[in-house]
Amino acid sequence: MRKFMIDSNILPASLLIMAAVTNLTEIELAFGARARRHAFERLRNVIHDLFDEEEIHEVEDAGLIEVIVRPRAEQGLRRPGLKIGQLCTLICANPITSEVGAFFAIPGIGTAVLASRDANIERARKRAYEQARFRPNSCHLPEVSQYQDDMAKAVHLMDQVARGGATLVWQPTVGPLAGAPVLYYEGLLRIGDGAGNLRSAEPELLALERMDLAPELDRRLMTAVLDELEANPKLRLGINISSKSASLYRYGACTLWQELRERLDGKPDLARHLVIEITETADFVSLEEAREFIAVIQELGCLVAVDDFGAGWRSIIQLSALAADIVKIDGRFVRDASKSDEGYETFLHLVRLGTSLASAVIVEGVETAHQASLARHAGADWLQGYQFARPSAGPMLPVVHDPQIMALSFVDRHSAAQAHA
């Protein structure tokens, strides 16, 4: 790596930012050398727009741009931290076109605080560089054709979300007794098929995860859900995020969920109406980062659910460490429970296990009255499935403030925090 030529006379509490496009090599292989230059140009333009008053140094052949932020006395490091989140959002805001096809540039951000005039800037550069170039779950380059195909799916889905061609439909979670009220509505992403019908977006969602772009889609959908909650404060809504998004550091330090934290900070009445469901279709960046993410989200007042319990790879030890509020049992198990005694015993074990791991258990995929009866007798707190309602874009009813969940999730945590303050 070429050394940067920067005056080391750094003011106290300055911030060193190292920015990169982490998929430059893949872009060049799949879309050409000109596409690589365009990706770096996107990074350059965004940085100059956001940090035009700061010290900026570029090393294009290394794919890096370094920024030294000297915060004004009245703002400290808070404002630069918010700008880092904006940097990632703007880089991913729109795809870049090429002769081969459109693609997204994926940011990587590293930061290091230079706390004194004598701070070791080379050591700080090394720390920031390692963060900016880190690519979780990436050990080899993908096949070019697969990369192009996945990127095309990702671009199409993001475009459909922006244009309204992909939308959230809502499915309620209800109590186990007949006529029970709705606990919350889960938002499920559906994409238009061109003929006026909506279909599952699963192929595009899996492609986004392989592209490391799931956090950007999740951020956009989270914004839409928060807008809906602010417009309809009597609702409680759930939104799925990828396991890859369950981190505060997805593109580097301070780079993900800044908008969510800003919008919910000091607004417990809004936060308690949001349920964040973490899916199991991909690995976590790390269990430690996932646990910190969940703790921060819960501290804001939100509920956190672990989706598809029993169907994925996560161990009981991992689930226990996450300390989620809700465990959702995969619908396959209630279907198997209706077919055999062995299936019911497995299902009963999962419900009891889920109860030991979280404040509430939801059984998904309940399609018949018999399955609903089995779930009730097994001790499930809440049920979800076609037996009660199909996902719909139609109007939603106000939800119940269930004392079992709301007390355990928000009130107790808030009281404990106040006691320790």
Q: Averaged pLDDT, please?
A: 85
CATH class call of the largest domain:
Alpha Beta
Q: What is the CATH homologous superfamily assignment of the largest domain?
A: EAL domain
For the report, how would you describe the main beta sheet? 9 strands, mixed
Compute the number of strand runs.
Answer: 13
Structural class: alpha/beta
Low-confidence stretches: 1-11, 407-421
Chain-wise SSE layout:
Layout lengths: L13 E8 L2 H8 L1 H18 L4 E5 L4 E6 L8 H14 L15 E8 L6 H13 L10 H20 L2 E9 L7 E11 L5 E3 L1 H9 L3 H18 L5 E5 L16 H7 L3 H4 L2 E5 L8 H14 L2 E7 L6 H7 L3 E4 L1 H7 L3 H17 L2 E4 L5 H10 L3 E2 L19 H18 L1
Helix pairs in contact: 1-2, 1-5, 2-3, 5-6, 12-13
Can you give a write-up of this model?
The protein has helices at residues 24-31, 33-50, 78-91, 121-133, 144-163, 202-210, 214-231, 258-264, 268-271, 287-300, 316-322, 331-337, 341-357, 369-378, 403-420, and strands at 14-21, 55-59, 64-69, 107-114, 166-174, 182-192, 198-200, 237-241, 274-278, 303-309, 326-329, 360-363, 382-383. The longest helix is centred in the middle third of the chain and has 20 residues, at 144-163. The chain has two domains: 14-133, 2-Layer Sandwich (Alpha-Beta Plaits), CATH 3.30.70; 146-420, TIM Barrel. Helix 14 (369-378) links the parallel strand 12 (360-363) and strand 13 (382-383). It starts with 13 loop residues before the first strand and ends with a helix. Strands 5, 6, 7, 8, 9, 10, 11, 12 and 13 form a nine-stranded mixed sheet that branches. It has 421 residues and is of the alpha/beta class.
